[in-house]
Queue: 2 jobs
Job 1
Amino acid sequence: STLYSVPDWGKGVFSVNANGLLEVAPPNVPGAPKVPLMSILAGIKDRGMDLPVVLRIENLIDLQVSHLNQSFAAAIEAHDYQNVYRGVFPIKVNQQSQVIEEIARFGARYNHGLEAGSKAELMIAMATLTDPGSMIICNGYKDAEFVDLGLRARQLGFECFFVVETPAELDLILERAELLQVEPRIGFRAKLSTQVEGHWSEDSGDRSLFGLSANQIVNMVDRLRDTGHLEWLRLLHFHLGSQIPNIRDIRTGVAEAVRYYNELVAEGAAMGYLDLGGGLAVNYEGGDTNYTLAEYCYDVVESVAATLAEGVPHPVLISESGRATVADSSILLFNTLDVTTFEPGPIRTVTEDDAEAIQKLGEIQANVEVANAHQSFTDAIYYRDDMRESFQLGTTTLRQRALAENLCLDVMQQVKHLLPQMRRIPKELEALHQDLADIYYANFSVFQSLPDTWAMDQVFPVVPIHRLNEEPTREAILADLTCDCDGKIDLFVGGHSTLPVHSLVDGEDYVFGVFMVGAYQETLGDLHNLFGDTNVVSVRINEGGNFEIERELQGDTVEDVLSYVEYTPAGLTETFRKTAERAVRSGLIKPSQRREIVEQFRESLRGYTYYEH
Ligand code: PLP
C-alpha cells in the first residue's frame, strides 16, 4: 500500500485492505466499516452507468467543512480572539449543484456561506442558501445587473458584501444603491505587495490583475467620505493566490492586510470583517506544503490578533477556501483499454545475408553485461539509426529495418534490467525507464477531466483501485482517448515519470482512480475531441458501511456535445438520411440496409462519448 503513497495523501480516509482493494472510510461516520471503491463501482454498474465516472463521496465534503470551521474555532479559542470565523465557499471551484447544495446544507450549522464571482454564481448563492443571515461575498467585475442582484440579496437579509475590484465599480454601487434605496455593504480588495511561491502565485504582487493599489484605496475612502457613506465600508479582502505552499508567505500577507485594515479603521470606516481569500493548500502528494489546516488557522488568527492596532475591535474572520474544501471528495475512475509495450518481439537468428549493421547489432545483443552496458546501449542506438538512414535512402528493406529495431529494443531492455547493478547511472541511461515504459491506453480525456495535469503540471494521486496485494510488474504512463500528444499522465506522486502497474488480465477490467480531483477540474474541463462530461455519481456512506447513491448524473451524450458546437441532431440525421438514400439509388446498399444504418446513426447520437463495451 505504500507503493502508491496512499498513507501520504490518503490521510487515513483511503487505505488498502488485505485483498488488495482500495477502500474509503470517512472518519466522520463513526463505526462505519471501510468500503472498497470496487464495491461502489459494482453498485454503479449494476444501475446501468459505466466508466469513466466521477465518484463523489459526500461525507468527505462534510468532513472538510467541519474541519475548516472547527480548526478556526480552536485557533480562535487558543488566541482568545474576540470574534468569530465565517467560511464562504467560492462557487467557481466546483459549481456542480450537488456540491453547492451539500456545502449549503451541511455548512448551515456553521453558517458557512458562498462566494460568487459572477452574476450566474450570485444567483446560485441567492437561490441555494436558505438561512437569511447567510453570508455571500461578491467578487469579480460587476455590472449594474450584478450590483442590483446583490442589493436585492441585502433586502432579503443576506449578509451580502460587494468586494470592489476596480475604482469604477464604487460609483456604480453608489448609483444603484441610491436608485434602489438599499444600503450596500462594501469591501475593498487590496493589492498586497507580499508575493507568494507556487503555481498560482500571480494573484499577488503589483502586477496582479485584481485589487486596488494603496493610492486607489485612499481615493475611494475620500469618495465614500465625500458622499457621506464611509459607514458602508465594512470589509477588507485580499487573495494571495491558490495552493500557497509556504505558511511564511501567508503570515506576511495577513500582516500586510491587517495594516490596511488598521488604517481603514483609523480613517473612520465602520469595518468589522477581514476576508483572507483562498490559498489554503491541499496535499496532493503528501509534501506540497509546510503546514497543516490546524497550523494555517492558528497562524492566521495569531497574525491578525498580533497586527491589529491597539483598540481596534477584532473583526469577523472570513476565508474563501475552495480547494481545501472539495478536492478530496471526488475521484475519477476509468478503465484500461489497451497496452503498448516496448518489448522486442521474437528475434530470428542473424545470418550472413543480413546487413552489416545488423550483424553488429546481433553481436551486441548476445553480449550485454554490467561492464559494457553503457557501451552496448550507445552502439545499439548507433547501428539502429544507421539502418533507419539506409531505409530512408531506399537501400534496405522494411524487414531489415524491423529486425534492427527489434535487436536494439532487446539491448535496451537488457540494459534497463542491469541498471540496479550499476554503480553509477550514466546520464544517457537516466531516461531509459521512461523510454521503455508501457503506455496504458485508458478511457478518459485529460482535457475534460484533469485539465490541470495538462495546463499546470499538477500531480494527482493515480492508483489502481484493486489488485494492490499483487506486486506491480510493469511501469507505465497513461494515455487518454484524445489523439493529442498532451493527452497523457506522465507525472506521478513523488516526481516519478512512470507508474508501477499490473499486467492486464484477459476479460478483466483494470481500473484506475485519480484522487483529489474535486477542485477546479470539472469546471475547467473542455470538449477536446468532443469528449463530454463524464457520468457523475454522488454517494453517501452511512453507519454500517452501506453506501447510498444520492445522485446520478448521466454524462454528455454525443447529441449533447454536438449541440454545444451548434449542430442539431435533427439536422445531422436529415443530411445523413439523404446521403444513405443516394447510396440506395446508386445501388450501393439495399433500402433495408439503409434503415439499419440510419437507425444505428440515431442510436449513436444518444450514446456516451467515451469508449463503451
Ligand atoms: N477567492 C478568490 C478571489 C479566488 O480567486 C480564489 C481562487 O483562486 C479562491 C478564493 C479560492 O482559492 P483556493 O481554492 O485556493 O481556496
Job 2
Amino acid sequence: RKRDDVDAEKLEEAVAELDPKVAVESFTDLPLSAPTKAGLKSVHFTTLTPIQAKAIPLALKGFDILGAAKTGSGKTLAFLIPVLENLYRAQCIGGDAGLGAMIISPTRELAIQIFDVLVKVGRKGHLFAAGLIIGGKSLQEERDALARMNIVVCTPGRILQHLSQTAMFNCDNLRMLVLDEADRILDMGFQRDVDAIVEYLPKERQTLLFSATQTKRVSDLARLSLQDPEYVSTADPA
Ligand code: ADP
Ligand code: MG
C-alpha cells in the first residue's frame, strides 16, 4: 500500500479520538498531516488563534460550523486547515478525484487572498490542484482549469455561471462548502446566487460558514446551507 494511505488511516483514527471539548493551544496538539504541519511551520505559525482553536477540532471531525469572529482573528486558516485535512484523509487528490471543496468569497480580492494563504500553507507536500474562479479570464479557460481542480476558491456569480452553463462540470464528489464573509455575501445581495449554487451540490457534505458579525440574516443563510451547525464565536459579550 501507498504510504499516504497508511498516514490517512492513522490520522482518521486520531481525528476520531480527538475531543473537541479539550482546549488546544498549539498546532502540534492536533492530528494534522505531515504536509500541513510542514506548511504551518514554513509560515512560522505555532499557536492557534481563539477562533481556530474552537472551530478546527470540530471541523476536522466533520461538523458543520457557523463561526463568527472579528476581522483579523484568523478565520482563513480556521477553514483552510480543515479543507486540506479532510480532503487529504479522504484521499481526494488529483485529476480523477474531482472537485472536493468549494470556497465562496464575496469579492475577487478576498478570493485571491484566500488562495494565496492556501498556496502558502499547502505547498509543502500537498498534492491538490487548486484554483481561482473569479472571472477575468475567458469562460473556456476557466472551464478547462476547473475540470482539474480539487479545491476552488470563487465568487458567487462566476461559479454559478459555470454550474449553470457547463454540462461537463459536476460536483458529485464535493465534500466541503465554505462561505467566507457570509455577512458580506448577504450584504452584497448574493443570497439568491448562493441558494442556486447549493442546489447543484451534494446534500451530503460539510458546510463551514464564517462571518465577522453574527446577524440574523447570517443565521437565515445558515438554515439554508448548514445541518445542525455548531456555533462558534469569539465575539466580545455585548
Ligand atoms: P480574518 O479572516 O479573521 O480577518 P485572517 O485569516 O485574514 O483573519 O488572519 C489575520 C492575520 O493573522 C493574517 O495576517 C494571518 O497570517 C495571521 N494569522 C492567522 N492565523 C495565525 C496563527 N495561528 N498564528 C499567527 N498568525 C496567524
Ligand atoms: Mg477573512
